[in-house]
Each structure stands twice: as structure tokens, then as C-alpha cells.
Amino acid sequence: MAFWWPLIVIAIAFAICKLLLMFIPDNVPSIDVDTSDVLDDGNQAKDNSFIYIPSRRHTDKVQCYEPATMKYLGYFPALKPDEVKERVVQARKAQKIWAKSSFKQRRLFLRILLKYIIEHQDLICNISSRDTGKTMVDASLGEIMTTCEKIHWLLSEGEKWLKPEYRSCGRSMLHKVAKVEFSPLGVVGAIVSWNYPFHNIFNPMLAAVFSGNSIVIKVSEHASWSGCFYLRIIQTALAAVGAPENLVEVITGFAETGEALVSSVDKIIFVGSPGVGKKIMRSASDTLIPVTLELGGKDAFIVCEDVDVPHVAQIAARGALQSSGQNCAGAERFYVHKDVYSSFVAEVVKIVKSVTAGPPLSGKYDMGAICMQEHSERLQYLVNDALDKGAEIVARGSVGNIGEGAVDQYFPPTVIVNVNHTMKLMQEEAFGPILPIMKFSSDEEVVQLANDSSYGLGCAVFSGSQRRARHIASQLHCGGAAINDFASNYMCQSLPFGGVKDSGFGRFAGIEGLRACCLVKSVVEDRWWPFIKTKIPKPIQYPIAENGFEFQESLVRTLYGLNIWDRLRALVNVLKILSEQPPAPTSNRRRND
Length: 593
Prior knowledge:
Blueprint: H1 4-21, E1 61-65, E2 72-77, H2 81-98, H3 103-119, H4 121-132, H5 136-162, E3 165-167, E4 176-184, E5 187-191, H6 197-210, E6 214-218, H7 224-240, E7 248-251, H8 255-262, E8 267-271, H9 274-284, E9 291-294, E10 299-303, H10 309-321, E11 331-337, H11 341-353, E12 356-357, H12 375-388, E13 392-396, E14 398-399, E15 414-417, E16 434-440, H13 443-451, E17 455-456, E18 458-462, H14 466-474, E19 480-483, E20 500-501, E21 504-505, H15 510-515, E22 518-526, H16 548-560, H17 564-579, H18 586-592
Parallel strand pairs: 5-6, 5-8, 6-7, 8-9, 10-11, 10-18, 11-16, 12-14, 15-16, 18-19
Antiparallel strand pairs: 1-2, 3-4, 4-22, 9-21, 13-15, 17-20
């Protein structure tokens, strides 16, 4: 017992010191970011600015407006291919400098960002809300918390997973040391969607920059105004740690802007639709760069009969209605066991009827606007197709105080029953506040239904038995599963995120996402250099001896034989061959004769 006391005392002292360090404020510099051109009076009800009317589809400009009010925000240039390539050239120059930076410098950059985000949550969420129509609460959940969690994970574990990783060297290489090194790829390109403009920029940027890369991010034409402001935060923080200029760039434009980016960088990360993802794959094949695709989902939300129905109904409503369906892993198919189907529908109806959509910054609204023009028509088309095939609307939420110019930017939350898989609503990604609810009778049936989809991003399974929920989830063909919860995977930033089938491939977040920004290099070196070096055995040196194959055969048996006695006999033969004087090669004798 006396042996353990010093160890226990040391462990307690270490824990106390770590606890005390938590109360010592970090010496993290503050940064000042210019916000003069993005501040608003916060009253979206005022009709004191230009109402945006024309389409965004200009060849030379990306027009920006508030989806909730259609008020004009400004425009940004649609960069031409030559301009994009020049941005990449400048980023490449900056990366060569940044690649030599220390992890200490990179962590300081993250701490500065984290401090600014925590102190300016209202500003960041306000800008996200104005540019995409989401509520402040949804912006906090999807933009602030996820980004802070990612920064925290990188600060805690990032360096550990980028240091050389030593691996076993195998039986034939016992005299060697084997390791994997992770070095920067160069310039990472990212083409990101509009649904979370803050996090969708910070997510790839944090991994790329922390792993020693530069990054050029093409933001969506539907969220360019916020993206260009968020770039200021990043560049100001980089300047504070002495990073080179142009290390991180945000570019604006349309399809040709993205195409030029794909052809110029060393890796591409894309978040968007399957159709565009396939085009990016074809373009990336010209330069054979690695590609990560996150192409949306049609997540199954499974409710077994042994659950707390009111509790699960609240989670279901949040999963489907969050930001008018602007969540990155949306619950879009609800499968409820027949024994609790009626009670579950009743609870969801009660919740949805209490939900009101409206301009998120002008009042207390549960839902905001739909970001993309004319998307409400797409949602209504899916609903109409379901109704034509026998579905029934049992509840719709309400729409609050909206201006005449923005009426098409809202879609009331809708609950639909009697749905089946012949309906497009159950097969195609909706990205809207719709809850189609379908019955199932057995676990086997719901597994078959959930897998009957071209998408495979995530799923949520609810049961009073965790074992049962895990068993169901283990049979679903998707990239992530939440047991008795929804989308909690993404808040665990140590986990990889991504899907299969039409949801894409590759992963971001977690160890896998961080290392995906690296050149993964295997390295082997002598363990006891220079005392023990690799030397080719005499029988297989050139010219090869007549017993060369016999030697190799015995060596293989020695190293990998399944029986210890066979291995020992083979070892004896190896030693015997090595000790013999090899006969002169036949070709040499003939030449001497």
C-alpha cells in the first residue's frame, strides 16, 4: 500500500492544479472587427429600405437581400476564373509560410476566434439571421455552439492527432520503426451551402488552417453578405497572430467561380446537392485531387412503441422545423410504431399549431423565412404530390407579420399523415418544415423502410430499450446514428461527419476530417541506426544463388508459420543456407571456361 500513496498524492495534486488553472484568465488578445456597414437597427418591420425584386442570377454581381423582408443588403462581385486562380496563387504563397508555424501560434489563433465569438454572439447570429432568415435561437444552436465546440476540440486534441503516429512494424521489420506523418496538403478549396453561413465557413477553415494549410472558400450566392463579413473576423484574428496575408479567402460568384476553384486547389470540400456534387467530381478528376462531398440527406426518425411520446414529439418538431428546415442533417421521414402512432401525431399536431413563422428579428417567432427564392413553390409541389396520392394534412402552423414583398419566402410548418414511399415527399430532399409521418409494425419493417432511400446521411432511433435502438440503428445504411436523440452526433466534434449513397462520401470533423486536410505519409527508418542496417542476405544478392528461392521459402515459414515447430525447423534451414559457401553462378563458370 505504501507504494501507491505517492502516486495517489501526485494524481490529486495534478487534479487540483488543473482545476486552479481554470480560474486563471487566459491572456488572449481581443480583436476589433469593423462592423459599421453591417449593423442594423434590428427592426425588420420598418419599411425604410429598398425592396429587392430582380433575380440574383447576374453574370457580374451577386445580389444580396434579407429573405425575411426582401430588403436589399448589397452586392458582391461574381469572380471570373482568372480572378479565382489569382486568389489561389496568393493563398499558396501564404501557405508556404504558414506551414512552418508552430502549434502554439495556431492555438492562439483559435483562442482569439473563440473569445471574439463568445463576446459577439448577438452580432454573429443577427447577421446570419438577416442573410438566411433563421431565428436567433436557431443561429445560436447551429452556428455558435457547433463552431465553439469544434474550436474547443481542436485546442484540446488537434495537435495530438497531427503529430507522427507510430505503428507496428511487423515480424519482418522488427529492426525498423514505422510511423505515419501528417503534413499540409497546400491550398484547400471549399464550396459551401447557405444553411449555416457562419459555421459552414468556419468548419473547413478551422481544420485547414490548424493543419497548416491555406483555404479559399466559395460561399453560396444565397449567403454572400454574411460570408464576406465573417471573413473579416478570420482575417483580423490571423493578423493578430502574425499570420501571412491571404491565408484565408472568401470568394463570391456562381457556377464558373466554383469550377475555377476546383481546378486550382489541392483538395476540394463541397457541401450542396448531389447534382452539383457529381459535376465537381468530374471536374476534380482532371487534376486528381481528393474530394469530400456532403450532399444532403433524408434522415429517418424512428419512434418505437416504448417511448415517452410527448418528449420524443418535441425533439421531432425541433428536428423538422429548425430554421424552416435549414438544418444540415434534417429529419425528413418519420416512422412511428402503430401502437403509438395516434398519440404521437396528436402531440406533434399540438406543437406545430403553436408554431408561428415570421421575420425573426421583428418579433417573437418560432421559425424564420426560407432562404432561397421560390423554394416554397418546391415544397408545395412535394406536398401536392403527396395529397394526390392519398396523404392528408392534419395540421399547419401560422405565418405572422410579413411584408407583401416577402410573402413567398415563408412556408407554414405542416404535418402530413397517410404517407408512403410512392410519394416524392418521402424520397426527395425537401429542406423545409414538413413532417410526413408513416406507420410501421415491426423492427424489420422499419429498417427496410429507412433504408429505402437514395440518401444515407444520418438517422435517429428512439426506444425505451437502448439495446433495441442500437440494434435498429446498426442496420441502417447511413453515416451517423443518434440513439434516443436527434443530430447529437454533430455536437461531438471528435466524430467524423458525412454520409453514403447520394449523401456523398468522405468525412469532415473529428480525427478523420482533420487528417483529410493532410498529406498522409508512411515513413520507415532503422531502429538502431547506425549499428543495425538493412543488409540483403547473400542468397538473394545479385547474381542470385541457386538456392535463393529455397532461402526465401524457409524465411517465409520462419516468420509466418502457424506451428512453432515448423517455424523452428525453417529457421534452422535459413541459418544453414546462410552459413554455406554459395556456389559460383553457372553463367560465370561458363564465361571462365
